[in-house]
Amino acid sequence: MKNKKLWIFILLIAAILILNHIFGWSSYISDQNNLKLLEDIIEENRLLAVIIYIAVTIAGCVVLALPGVTFAIAAGLLFGPVLGTICCSAATTIGAMFAFAAGRYFLKDSIKPVVLKNRYLKKWLFDESGRNEIFILMITRLVPIFPYNLQNFAYGITDIRFSTYSVCSLLFMLPGTAMYTVGTAGLADQENRVLYIGIAVVLAVAVIGLGAYLKKNFIKEEQSEKDGTEE
Fold this sequence. Notes:
The chain has 231 residues and is an all-alpha fold. The chain has helices spanning 4-23, 25-29, 32-44, 46-62, 68-106, 108-115, 119-125, 131-142, 148-155, 162-188, 193-230.
């Protein structure tokens, strides 16, 4: 069968959507009572709570395609600003790695030839030097134009190395993750509220500013290259 892996991937996604509709996994994860249950586990065994949180976050992000911000907020409430950021960053990065591997295995053979027909996408996603791929990864992680979950699968069809993708994803997603976890921890902690929310605001400004700077210079560089070619 032509594009066998692609069809298997589509059937898997369809099966997950149907099962999620039947059993309500998404609503179960976001249930406040289950969050309270995890809070109780933290008091007795923090390590076990961390393991459960990471496992649920990976499943939620990869299998159910739930927004990562949901788990960042939960991490801030459950574990505080520091441990919450570490847990959420680790879980979302591992989830991104799983999704990337799935995209590379199931989608690359069938999707890559189609993408290569687009001159612009070919230049920026399949640059032999790898520089453009990392630059695009940086921009889309810092200023997510598309949802992270879709990005993770989409990057699997590129030629970027798994190790490079994993490290860059961890670094570039970290500021945004910290922004949500620290900000949420501030809302839950009256004593340190001003400090935590202040840090979250600084991170938000830094993320938005850096993203805007990269996009602006990216566009300028592209325009300069075009002008130079035309001359």
